């Protein structure tokens, strides 16, 4: 379980007992909010210590106490941790000494010498870079060898990058959203730019979704961007990009600010994937006071991007909680778990958390590949 500030714990899945706590194990209490900050989604790497268990690689950074435009921010860190004890094996600061909010994602190789790691730096108001580096370099403490894939002087890379084979060469490519509204695709072998798409007047805080959204056999990319400049956003710009050419095939503005990541499923079995996305809306009561609502919507690209809601509007706003899709009760029908604030009067409210289970009559006919944050494998790989 990864959180902030500096909260990273291993908890027994059977009885809920604590196995280890990162701060306590490494005796780092005095360095919380000084050297160690928020943890992001961890990933597993091959066993290093020889105990037969995989180790953990995770990014850490982002001092929430800093003023928005304060450039003096502590460097982010990439940390490798012994999964059995929680002890630090090795750690390295980001090459540019910038903060990080970016969860690491890795290539699908199995050998340490072949695995590559993508991470990003910067934030809403701080410039940063998108990097790729060999896992062996991280383990050698030589993260300065990381290759810069993209950079921006004013804004960074926050949402986790995705690995998927866009050009059908058998090697997963790297797809990444930048805060400045750009979407990048890089060749997984050469690391050369395949295409770049800018979504004007937007910022992006969610990960790309990958699926077959057109009738060809090439994977495509869907992005949810926010119109405006942090923290003043209006609507969302929802964009589908042809994975091979980089051409925009769908673009519609709907919903208000959110940073949840879109999900993917072929709901109607027509071999064209649909997008399942959180949608926030606002209205007003009789006195003119603004009210906020949310729902789960589906975009059907085979029907010219027709959008339908899976349930009536619910009270409150979903700022950043990506749903989970799967089959909880093993009836081969789609279940969706999602949560949101039920405070109807504020968008950034985190009080009154409401967790929902939506049971549908949509049959699950094939394995879900993109049914959760960072995909159904929680690793950012398609």
Automatic annotation (TrEMBL):
Entry keywords, A to Z: Membrane, Transmembrane, Transmembrane helix
Keyword Thylakoid tagged: no
GO CC, alphabetical: membrane
Topological relation to the membrane, as annotated: Single-pass membrane protein
InterPro entries for this protein: FAM234 (IPR045232), Integrin_alpha_N (IPR028994), WD40/YVTN_repeat-like_dom_sf (IPR015943)
Cell location: Membrane
Full protein name: Repeat domain-containing protein
Principal location class: membrane
